[in-house]
């Protein structure tokens, strides 16, 4: 079992320096800042000049796998477990419930070693929620019923010490994340406030069955409302950290460079903040892009979701965004889960571009196009056009 | 053991003496059988009476040593005083001087041979000393005089128990219990029953006492719990009794108290967990489980029993959790291991189920039955995990180990079906059929596979046989209808569908299938087919297939306008079905509308260029 290491503030700076060019490094120092705030998801770091931001898709892990979901298989709102999307950075570890253990340590009064039995016997909660990849451009999203143990409960049991402000989730999957970086366990840092929210759990069931191996069996972190990279699969260790604590492998692996918003502003590129909360979005499940249809009446349908609050409405355009009409939500939206919507469409002969846009209760709408200042490959929630040829 | 028995001897003897005193039973000189050769003087008699009074007071105060001294003084003054000798015997017994006590009682008996109290005391002592024949003889004498005497009955029970005649003891206890309303007697009976391990009877006594004397009930159940708290059967019987009387909160309170008072005894906490589950307090049960597991992270006895309990209550996650704990304790019980594997498989943890069951399958020293069950679990888990070839290896082994187990054949045939190898599936089912009486599921599977292998006549025989014996097997009707149809007996096929229709008018798509069969019959079936389609339309008016089939009938009947209208409705409901447009093209062709026909063919081709799955539903 690896140990956790707390680095000094200066060590963290050295770690960053190894990754960045001298020029970027100086820019970084000028904007200052640093990581503690960064990892609380607040806007932060100063200007960085970079040719291209590192992203999850640039990583070198040859064994990673992405399994797309199929909207066709969704029953009402639930994606069957065997159709659930999966995205991994490293090879899937072979784990068994009999041997699995979860270590909770760091800034806690009583470090815990939990077995699978301990997890099952703890108070559990079940909630329906979307899991979406931060880089989802189409089918890397699913919605299921998750069952697990509240992180707040587990942390309370361990007893949080003063100064605890963030959690390191470490998976059992290991590998090299980037060229020139050491092989490390997959790990993510998440602010304590999100972990203490009632919806955040250590999940061990999906749709009433134990997690499929590729979705994190025996147990994974699950943070509803946040993109999937923080819901660390094959969870083996939770380390409670303070503001200035720097877990070595998180930085040496290069994980800290992933899942950040990189923008170009005023001719400069810079990281503004980490990616976390799922942005409001909808997808058209039928008709699929490039479908040929015969003229007639169709029920266009799909799903809409958001990580923040509730979906308030979905609108559909069948003319590429010129005109919009309301779709019907098939159920009352609930937090973190997607809602099915339908739209009656009389398809006339010709070419059509269908768009769907969702609006959340705060008033924020799904954008129609990508923010041109964004350089990273995350939060791709703009409306994807669905082209149909009708005869 | 001996001291326990004497301790109860003391309690009973004390009771006897007190009763004698209270009831004024006379056992000294006046009732003596043999007169003294030299009668004592009046002064001696007066002193003896004084000493006797003193002795009995001391006995009541449990000062047995002083009581024995004064009883001896009485005997010195009045040697033939049976009462004093009786008192001396009881005092000495209470002091643990059994031989002397027995001698004193014998002398008392010689002086007053018919006195039932002395006989009972002697019988009790003899039972304790193992002189069972003598005890039985004395009890027989007493029983003649006092046929319903409880103490006699209790002593008889003790002699039975000393002789290991538990059934006789149990019968006697039950007869005493029925005859008496004395709560102290019931309490004593409960105590005896606890020692016998007769849990159901203990609980019956407890229930009776609870109505009559809660204090005695409390004592009785406490004694039972201390003696038998670790017995699964006892706790279960006790909890069922509470449950039957809708008193689970009282059971929870009882086990909570015992658990608090005896923190080193985990069984009271186990009882509390059981009671909480039976009361529907699952979170309380889990809380106690967590507390128990902190004290006892693994245990090879408690956790398998708890696992079984949770399994019975359909709390499969908690059952699995207990079996995991048992497994971690190093328990090698194949039954527990298989239960764990079964729950892992049911929960979708196929890899774990395989690993767990393999441990049993590979132990060649184990019996064939248990290994076959393990191989079945391994095989079905591999099948669920999509590894069919491995599944076949293990299911073959399961059959090899237990050739007369139907499930082994069924599972193997299903793997072949998944691989679309219906020939192998059929071979497996044929191989197993003669080895046991096949279940309806087996016959249905056999019939389906005969049908898939074009052995239509055999399929008809098997499925007809199944439906004659089990007409409620609705899944067998359609394959039978199909078998009839394919063996050139379409009428019987239609009849079979009608049979199903009569049983289950709402069977999905049945009317449409029936209509299709009638259409296949040719012109003679058209009118009937239209009737079926009308019926189907009433049930599911938005089903495009109804209008499509109707258009086919109308086309065959030359009613072209009606056929076109039906197809337009079908296309309205499902615009992107290439087949509908092709059919419409045929109608237009027959109408001589070549341009329209060509247009529909173009649409058909356009739609076929993107062979999309049917995503038009929006459930």
What does this structure look like?
- The complex is a heterodimer of chains A (391) and B (619).
- The N terminus of chain A is likely disordered.
- Chain A is 12% helix and 36% strand.
- Chain A has 391 residues and is mainly β.
- Chain A is globular and about 65 Å long.
- The longest helix of chain B has 22 residues.
- By secondary structure, chain B is mainly α.
- The relative contact order of chain B is 0.02.
- Chain B is elongated, with a radius of gyration of 42 Å.
- Chain B has 34 helices and no strands.
- At the A-B interface, helix 4, strand 10, strand 16, strand 17 and strand 21 of A face helix 16, helix 18, helix 20 and helix 34 of B.
Largest sheet of chain B: none
Q: How many angstroms does the end-to-end distance of chain B come to?
A: 74 Å
Main pleated sheet of chain A: 5 strands, mixed
Enumerate the spans of chain B where pLDDT stays under 50 for 5 or more consecutive residues. Answer: 1-33
SS content category of chain A: mainly beta
Q: What is the end-to-end distance of chain A?
A: 63 Å
Shape of chain B: elongated
Provide mean pLDDT of chain A, rounded.
84
Total beta-strand segments of chain B:
0
Give me the Rg of chain A, rounded: 22 Å
CATH C-level name of the largest domain in chain A: Alpha Beta
Shape of chain A: globular
Sheet with most strands: strand arrangement of chain A: 4-3-12-7-8
Mean pLDDT of chain B: 88
Secondary-structure blueprint of this entry?
The complex is a heterodimer of chains A (391) and B (619).
Chain A: H1 9-19, H2 22-31, H3 35-38, E1 66-67, E2 86-87, E3 101-106, E4 112-115, H4 116-120, E5 124-132, E6 141-150, H5 151-158, E7 164-176, E8 183-191, H6 192-195, E9 201-206, E10 209-210, E11 220-222, E12 235-242, H7 248-252, E13 260-265, E14 268-274, E15 281-286, E16 291-293, E17 296-305, E18 311-317, E19 325-326, E20 328-329, E21 339-347, E22 350-360, E23 386-390
Parallel strand pairs in A: 3-12, 16-23
Antiparallel strand pairs in A: 1-2, 3-4, 5-6, 6-9, 7-8, 7-12, 9-10, 9-11, 13-14, 15-17, 17-21, 18-19, 18-22, 20-21, 22-23
Chain B: H1 2-23, H2 42-60, H3 64-77, H4 82-94, H5 98-111, H6 116-129, H7 132-145, H8 150-162, H9 166-179, H10 183-196, H11 199-212, H12 214-228, H13 232-244, H14 248-261, H15 266-278, H16 282-295, H17 302-312, H18 316-328, H19 334-346, H20 350-361, H21 368-384, H22 388-401, H23 406-418, H24 422-433, H25 440-452, H26 456-469, H27 477-486, H28 490-503, H29 510-520, H30 526-539, H31 544-556, H32 560-573, H33 578-591, H34 594-609
Helix pairs in contact in B: 1-4, 1-6, 2-3, 3-4, 4-5, 5-6, 6-7, 6-8, 7-8, 8-9, 8-10, 9-10, 10-11, 10-12, 11-12, 11-13, 13-15, 14-15, 15-16, 15-17, 17-18, 18-19, 19-20, 19-21, 20-21, 21-22, 21-23, 22-23, 23-24, 24-25, 25-26, 26-27, 27-28, 28-29, 29-30, 29-31, 30-31, 31-32, 32-33, 33-34
């Amino acid at each position: 079992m690896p140990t956790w290491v707390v680095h000094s503030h200066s060590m963290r700076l050295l770690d960053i320096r190894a990754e960045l060019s001298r020029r970027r490094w100086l820019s970084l120092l000028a904007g200052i800042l640093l990581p503690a705030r960064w990892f609380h998801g607040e806007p932060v770091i100063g200007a960085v000049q970079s040719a291209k931001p590192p992203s999850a898709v640039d990583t070198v892990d040859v064994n990673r796998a992405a399994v797309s979901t199929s909207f066709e298989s969704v029953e009402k709102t639930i994606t069957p477990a065997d159709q659930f999307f999966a995205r991994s950075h490293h090879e899937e570890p072979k784990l068994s419930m009999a041997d699995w253990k979860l270590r909770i340590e760091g800034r806690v009064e009583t470090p815990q070693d939990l077995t699978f039995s301990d997890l099952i016997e703890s108070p559990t909660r079940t909630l329906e929620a979307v899991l979406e990849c931060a880089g989802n451009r189409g089918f890397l999203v699913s919605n299921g019923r998750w069952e697990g143990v509240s992180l707040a409960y587990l942390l309370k049991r361990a007893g949080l010490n003063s100064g605890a402000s963030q959690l390191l989730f470490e998976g059992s999957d290991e590998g090299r994340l980037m060229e020139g970086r050491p092989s490390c366990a997959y790990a993510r840092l998440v602010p304590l406030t999100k972990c203490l929210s009632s919806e955040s759990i250590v999940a061990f069931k999906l749709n009433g069955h134990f997690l499929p191996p590729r979705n994190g069996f025996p147990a994974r972190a699950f943070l509803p409302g946040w993109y999937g990279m923080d819901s660390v699969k094959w969870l083996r260790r939770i380390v409670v950290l303070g503001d200035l604590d720097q877990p070595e492998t998180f930085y040496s692996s290069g994980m800290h460079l992933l899942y950040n918003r990189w923008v170009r502003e005023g001719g400069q590129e810079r990281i503004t903040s980490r990616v976390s909360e799922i942005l409001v979005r909808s997808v058209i499940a039928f008709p699929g892009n490039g479908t040929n249809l015969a003229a007639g009446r169709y029920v266009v349908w799909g799903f809409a979701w958001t990580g923040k609050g509730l979906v308030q409405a979905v609108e559909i355009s069948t003319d590429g965004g010129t005109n919009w009409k309301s779709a019907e939500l098939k159920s009352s939206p609930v937090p973190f889960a997607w809602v099915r919507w339908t739209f009656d469409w009389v398809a006339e002969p010709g070419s059509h571009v269908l768009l769907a846009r969702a609006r959340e209760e705060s008033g924020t709408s799904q954008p129609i196009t990508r923010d041109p200042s964004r350089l990273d490959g995350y939060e791709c929630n703009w409306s994807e056009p669905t082209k149909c040829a009708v005869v | 053991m001996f001291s326990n028995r004497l301790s109860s001897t003391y309690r009973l003897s004390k009771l006897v003496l007190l009763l004698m005193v209270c009831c004024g039973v006379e056992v000294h000189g006046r009732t003596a059988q043999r007169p003294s050769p030299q009668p004592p003087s009046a002064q001696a008699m007066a002193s003896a009476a004084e000493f006797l009074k003193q002795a009995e007071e001391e006995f009541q105060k449990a000062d047995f040593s002083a009581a024995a001294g004064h009883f001896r003084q009485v005997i010195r003054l009045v040697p033939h005083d049976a009462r004093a000798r009786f008192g001396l015997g009881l005092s000495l017994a209470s002091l643990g001087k059994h031989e002397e006590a027995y001698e004193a009682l014998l002398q008392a008996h010689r002086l007053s041979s018919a006195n039932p109290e002395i006989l009972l005391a002697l019988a009790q002592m003899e039972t304790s000393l193992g002189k069972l024949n003598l005890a039985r003889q004395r009890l027989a004498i007493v029983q003649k005089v006092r046929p319903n005497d409880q103490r006699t009955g209790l002593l008889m029970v003790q002699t039975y128990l000393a002789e290991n005649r538990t059934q006789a003891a149990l019968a006697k206890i039950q007869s005493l219990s029925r005859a008496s309303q004395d709560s102290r007697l019931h309490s004593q009976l409960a105590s005896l029953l606890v020692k016998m391990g007769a849990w159901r009877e203990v609980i019956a006594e407890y229930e009776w006492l609870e109505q009559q004397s809660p204090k005695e009930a409390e004592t009785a159940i406490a004694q039972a719990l201390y003696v038998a708290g670790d017995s699964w059967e006892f706790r279960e019987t006790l909890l069922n009794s509470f449950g039957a009387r809708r008193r689970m909160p009282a059971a929870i309170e009882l086990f909570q108290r015992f658990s608090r008072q005896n923190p080193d005894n985990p069984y009271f906490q186990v009882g509390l967990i059981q009671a909480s589950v039976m009361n529907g307090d699952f979170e309380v049960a889990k809380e106690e489980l967590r507390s128990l597991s902190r004290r006892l992270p693994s245990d090879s006895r408690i956790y398998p029993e708890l696992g079984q309990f949770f399994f019975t209550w359909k709390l499969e996650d908690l059952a699995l959790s207990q079996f995991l704990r048992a497994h971690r304790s190093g328990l090698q019980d194949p039954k527990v291991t298989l239960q764990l594997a079964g729950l892992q498989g049911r929960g979708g943890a196929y890899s774990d189920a395989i690993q767990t069951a393999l441990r049993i399958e590979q132990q060649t020293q184990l019996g064939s039955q248990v290994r076959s069950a393990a191989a079945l679990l391994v095989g079905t888990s591999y099948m669920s995990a999509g590894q069919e070839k491995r599944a076949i290896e293990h299911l073959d082994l399961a059959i090899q180990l237990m050739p007369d187990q139907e499930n082994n054949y069924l599972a193997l045939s299903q793997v072949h079906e998944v691989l679309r190898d219906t020939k192998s599936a059929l071979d497996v089912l044929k191989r197993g059929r003669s080895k046991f009486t096949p279940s309806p599921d087996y016959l249905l599977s056999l019939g389906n596979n005969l049908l898939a292998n074009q052995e239509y006549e055999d399929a008809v025989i098997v499925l007809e046989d199944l439906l004659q014996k089990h007409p409620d097997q609705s899944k067998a009707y359609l394959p039978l209808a199909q078998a009839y149809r394919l063996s050139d007996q379409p009428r019987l096929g239609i009849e079979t569908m009608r049979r199903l229709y009569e049983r289950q008018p709402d069977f999905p798509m049945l009317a449409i299938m029936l209509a299709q069969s009638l259409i296949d019959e040719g012109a003679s079936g058209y009118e009937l087919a239209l009737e079926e389609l009308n019926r189907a339309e009433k049930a599911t008016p938005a089903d495009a297939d109804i209008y499509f089939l109707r258009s086919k009938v109308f086309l065959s009947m030359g009613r072209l306008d009606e056929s076109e209208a039906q197809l337009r409705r079908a296309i309205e409901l499902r615009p992107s079905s290439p087949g509908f447009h092709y059919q419409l093209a045929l109608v237009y062709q027959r109408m001589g509308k070549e341009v329209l026909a060509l247009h529909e063919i173009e649409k058909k081709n356009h739609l076929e260029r993107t062979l999309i799955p049917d995503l038009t539903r929006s459930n």
